């Protein structure tokens, strides 16, 4: 898609559109075309939990860009150097996990919006010192379209949410439901009233601050629909691995139940969520 522009995803959000993505773990060459034909706006490439090396990550980012999809990369830890590295590799959006204090987000903004500046000069700008018009123009062009995204997935982050979301340069937050539920002491209880109330608070405060907000679920699509109604505008639905597993298990369950083949070749009658 030759008309693809680096700021496509940001412009869709500015226009009030809901954007759709999925987590991709496979680096198989033909997988890019399969994913690109699915009606998505972006792909979520997770280097925190998935074993993707830097060369593969770069190939994936550039291949998805060529297909018109925005690559959003989650780095392994809150590290501005890793954030800059992900952008060098072809990411357009960068997510840092488990952000809990304003300094972490400010450093992430510096790496994504002021790249390639580092060191004392960058610190001066992050403290509010205005750069020369020439430097500002260069940095704006160099980082045009880059998205700075914070993972909110803990109670300390929720308690400091007003301070975190007020950092200039932050574009969006992604809610990590699994880690958040565990941090709350209610592991994987996604319908628990406290979990629902906490996620709702994050969504409302993010949107009030003019930020995009997404939540990543690998469960049934209805959860995504329900949260879109509450204000989510960056849908991160499932992953290639989860969708393959769910569909394969469902198909095998149907085949085995139709042929009476349960109990053979490791078959089971466990329920399947699709």
From TrEMBL:
Residues spanning the membrane: none
The HpcH/HpaI aldolase/citrate lyase domain, residue ranges: 24-244
Specify whether Metal-binding is a keyword of the entry: yes
Keyword Metal-binding tagged: yes
Q: SUPFAM superfamilies under this entry?
A: Phosphoenolpyruvate/pyruvate domain
Report the Gene3D superfamilies cross-referenced here.
Phosphoenolpyruvate-binding domains (3.20.20.60)
Family per record: Belongs to the HpcH/HpaI aldolase family.
Native source species = Algoriphagus oliviformis
UniProt KW keywords: Lyase, Metal-binding
Highest taxon of source: Bacteria
Q: Could you tell me what this protein is called? A: Aldolase
